[in-house]
Design goal:
The chain is α/β, with parallel strands linked by helices and about 350 residues long. It contains 14 helices and twelve strands. A hairpin with a 4-residue loop joins strand 11 and strand 12. Bound molecules: ligand TLP.
Length: about 350
């Protein structure tokens, strides 16, 4: 029996047989002692791709963001972030609990900020106010609908941040998607940020793993906190091998996911009552509203499940779909047929 067509997230991708082979063959050692050759190779590879001095392998994208925030700030500092960003909304309040910082949230356009907004958010140098320390950006922007951060905005925000002595962290959980879709190299995005986190477990088939990159001094600091957060892993080469394989084999094919997402968005836009602009689908994430249809997203989820398709409600009448390695062109047509049946 065929599995469900799983459009809930690109986190659901499974290692391919070839990736499993690479994992099985991986040379391993104790990474807490820095002795795992495969982890070391992955870290060198990612640092090079991102044009940074060093990088460090961590278990999840959440830990990567939280370690970056912890390493850049002191308790009481303020971090400027977009209101629908991942660290603010989907990381269990970790930045308050683990770093004692507070967020200053700005509303972006589909997740994207511009430098003038940042300028207004910086606190004056006065002891009444928290100290503004860090700006977090997200590329692509998840809740924004997989939006690609325009490189001009990143450059302007970063130049402005540097002129004010502020730091920039880039949550690049899906930087690969941004890069493949825009043709802009990951390094070009990364050069504007003091730290960059990337995920290997979103759309690339790797079971686990994220990497944070930055200067050697910064990564050294992250290393200490990784231990403190319980993220020091031992023979992690087994999973790092999956990451290396994913970077070598599964980046270019993200184009197919983007094409599938566009096809899905176009098909959905033809259903009466579905609110979606296919032009806004730039990568592998599709967010649409069904308010006019008179069903809730949770009801649609149940009906779609009966038709073999898994989807993710993103609000009362908002639905998010994500295309990835384990969703084919044919699966998109099956999903569209089910949507037409249920929503049409
Ligand atoms: N996002 C997940 C959920 O947590 C919402 C998803 O299904 O999209 N940054 C961004 C931009 C992300 O989208 C995610 C995962 C993370 C960080 C966290 O990564 P993990 O899940 O590895 O902790």
């Amino acid at each position: 029996m065929k599995d469900f067509i799983d459009l809930r997230s690109d986190t659901v991708t499974k290692p391919t047989p070839a990736m499993r082979k690479a994992m099985a063959k991986a040379e391993v050692g104790d990474d807490v002692f820095g002795e795992d050759p495969t982890v070391n190779a992955l870290q060198e590879k990612v640092a090079k791709i991102l044009g940074k001095e060093a990088s460090i392998f961590v278990p999840s994208g959440t830990m990567a963001n939280q370690l970056a925030i912890k390493s850049h700030t002191q308790p009481g500092d303020e971090v400027i972030i977009e209101a629908t960003s991942h660290p603010y909304n989907f990381e269990g309040g970790a930045s308050a609990a683990l770093s004692g910082i507070q967020f200053y949230c700005l509303k972006g356009v589909r997740g994207i900020l511009d430098a003038s907004q940042i300028e207004e958010a910086i606190r004056p140098d006065d002891h009444h106010f928290p100290v503004t320390k860090l700006i977090c950006l997200e590329n692509t922007h998840n809740r924004g609908g997989g939006t690609i951060y325009p490189i001009q905005n990143i450059a302007e925000i970063s130049r402005f941040a540097r002129s004010k002595g502020l730091l920039v962290h880039l949550d690049g959980a899906r930087l690969w998607n941004a890069s493949v879709a825009s043709g802009i190299k990951p390094q070009e995005y990364a050069r504007w940020a003091d730290s960059v986190s990337v995920c290997l477990s979103k759309g690339l088939g790797a079971p686990i793993g994220s990497v944070i990159a930055g200067t050697k001094t910064f990564i050294d600091r992250v290393h200490r906190f990784r231990k403190m957060f319980g993220g020091g892993m031992r023979q992690a080469g087994i999973i790092a091998a999956a990451g290396i394989y994913a970077l070598d084999q599964h980046i270019e094919r993200l184009k197919e996911d983007h094409k599938n997402a566009k096809r899905l968005a176009l098909g959905l836009s033809e259903i009466q009552g579905v609110s979606i602009d296919p032009e806004h689908v730039e990568t592998n994430i599709i967010i649409f509203d069904i308010a006019e249809i008179g069903m809730t997203a949770a009801q649609v989820r149940e009906e779609m499940k009966k038709n073999g398709v898994l989807i993710h409600p993103f609000g009362k009448t908002l639905i998010r779909l994500v295309t990835h390695l384990d969703v084919s062109k044919e699966d998109i047509e099956v999903a569209l047929k089910a949507f037409r049946k249920i929503l049409g």
